[in-house]
Amino acid sequence: MAFASVGLKDADVAKALEGCKDAGKFNHKTFFQACGLASKSAEEVKKAFFIVDQDKSGFIEEEELKLFLQTFKAGARALTDAETKDFLKAGDLDGDGMIGADEFIAMVKK
Questions:
Q1: pLDDT tens-digit map of 21-58
Q2: What is the rounded distance in angstroms from the CA atom of residue 28 to the CA atom of residue 33?
Q3: Which of 9, 18, 23, 98 gives a 20 to 30 Å CA spacing to 74?
Q4: Domain parsing of the chain, residue ranges
Q5: Separation CA 33–CA 108 (nearest Å)
């Protein structure tokens, strides 16, 4: 699991994924708490950012957010359009339509 390098435990990630397995049930704050990411250092959260940033652009764009759960476990569901837009809105502090590393850290640590 890629997130083991960030110090997340498989059981915690599985629990977090189970909590949002149904469409419309994803809440980023709840997910970050359940998987343990919220309790990690800013440096560890930044490592997680680069895992989610699949295209290595330095930003997490809407399409990467849609597939966010799949970065934690292959076969996990894609976020709904509404969940994706809410997630982006929560993290995009400067309004550029993307989430940068600092924005991601701020969102996770909130």
A1: 999 999 999 999 999 999 999 999 999 999 999 999 99
A2: 9
A3: 98
A4: 7-109
A5: 9
- The set of residues, in sequence order, having a beta carbon less than 8 Å from that of 101 and lying 6+ positions away, is 46, 49, 50, 58
Amino acid letter, residue 102: D
How many other C-beta atoms are found inside a 10 Å radius of the C-beta of residue 71?
17
Instruction: Determine the topology of domain 7-109 in CATH.
Output: Recoverin; domain 1 (1.10.238)
Q: Tally helices (H) and strands (E) across the chain.
A: 7, 2
DSSP line for 21-40:
-STT---HHHHHHHHTGGGS
